[in-house]
Amino acid sequence: xxxxxxxxxxxxxxxxSFVYRDDRVVAFxxxxxxxxxxxxxxxxxxxxxxxxxxxxxxGHLMAxxxxxxxxxxxxxxxxxxxxxxxxxxxxGQEVPHVHLHVQPRRHNDGILSAYRDGLPAPSDRASLDxxxxxxxxxx
Length: 139
Description:
By secondary structure, the chain is of the alpha+beta class. The chain has helices at 5-10, 55-75, 88-91, 125-136; strands spanning 18-21, 25-29, 39-43, 80-84, 100-105. The chain is built from four helices and five strands; from the N terminus they run αβββαβαβα. A five-stranded antiparallel β-sheet has the order 1-2-3-5-4, covered by helices on one side. A hairpin with a 3-residue loop joins strand 1 (18-21) and strand 2 (25-29).
């Protein structure tokens, strides 16, 4: 089996429960359904992370994620929904193939507690402006 389980799924060598397929992107149910309806949106072409993702594929990936989210809401609107994408070990990426999670949320479901100790204090405007300038210079 390949290192990439998503490539195995796309090649038909591993099972998946598909909700959407086109020539560039597929969407299938995540094996771990902490809240029912968790769907992964995955490009057909192997792309290891967001840094290797081209803008056209990124846009289509997001468009399909929005369609999936709307389909979930049409069935049984959840009280909340997250879209997330993880990169690298520190970011929590488990499969080395870029993908978007479409995760319905319920109150107190315990998923994605982003700030264990509460929200961080706001940064000062001068620091934010300097950071924004550094990032903008690389766009």
